[in-house]
Write the structure tokens for this entry.
Amino acid sequence: MRIALRTSGGRGEYELAGTQGDVAVSDLLGLQLCYEVTPEIVISGRALATQAQGKPRIRLLSQQNNAIHLYRILAAVLLLPKPLRELKRAHGSKLLFHEAYAMTAIKVDVAAIDRSHGRVVLRPTDILLGNAAHEEASLGVSQRMSRILRVWKAVETGTDPLSVKLRQHRDVVRNPTADHKQIEQIAHDIAHILKTESDVLPVIETQLFGQSSGVLGEEDYIEWRGLSVWDSFGVQDDLTPIAAKRQRVKQWRLVAVRGAEGTAFRKAISEGYDFRCAFSGIRLPKMNTTDSSGVDAAHILPWATHNINAPTNGVCLSKQCHWAFDEGVLKMDWDRSCNVYVLSIPREVEKSARASRFDLAGFQSMAGSIPRKNLPHDETLWPDIHYLEALNRFMFPPC
């Protein structure tokens, strides 16, 4: 599903289009929109999915004059230069430059539909950028947001004007009833401090960390072939909303393991568990005949604002068990009555396995209490039960 800019006639309109599994745009009409930029950060869109001129459109709630459209909200939250709504006016040699580009389409997942409160939560996942010269690029929201989270964490104690302003940005974005225009103003102030109309994030990262992930890599650009990818971008997604949630967890985990902090996390987990898989109990250290060990450091909460790479936010797993954990084939809980970790296979997985002739026997043999010998001797390294509970609320919502 996507929110797309229709540019014909005037400033352009934002339309809802496509499907998410068996959820169609028509299922969202009449619902107020909220936007999930991480599972911890959901911003009220102060907008309504409605029908206008026979098309599913997005209309801002007129009684709330601090509301702005999603394209401007995302730009401000992700610290991107301000985009235009009129594609024909988007000129320049750089895509990410103040009022020199447009967000022509925003791919979204349907994160949750709450009809009792008349709202739907949409999760922006990818943004298609473009200008009047038919240059296009895509930008992943989770990748960009992970960089923002890292910056927020780095400026917790800074007293310089940039650190103070970035903390203000963090606090207002985290506020579920955030004033959209305040977010935008703070993003503008940050660009003013840095004296740039281009992408501020690489400049911030260079000042804080000595290096940056850059603006847009070569893999972000889409080759122009005379037919825009706009036509198919995000229109149809066969993933159900639940499957989409799990897909986004995997994307966040891939982001979390990169860089020096990810390397330290992998080392702490592997050594803390003595290279033993917590689920299967098999010890798989690196041998002289192998290039690496047979275990991974699996994140529990990949999107956590703090302690992303703390050992208590991870568990040591074999390659196969890591896959099963990420995909929701194996669910890990804490049994408070017995003070043990417990593995189980969700009913929907068992049902799907039967239909697909998927062999669950190996995973079924692991179900039950996890033996203490599979865990680190140092209990301070054990998985945080609150992180597990938060993950399971997200991955396995009640029916």
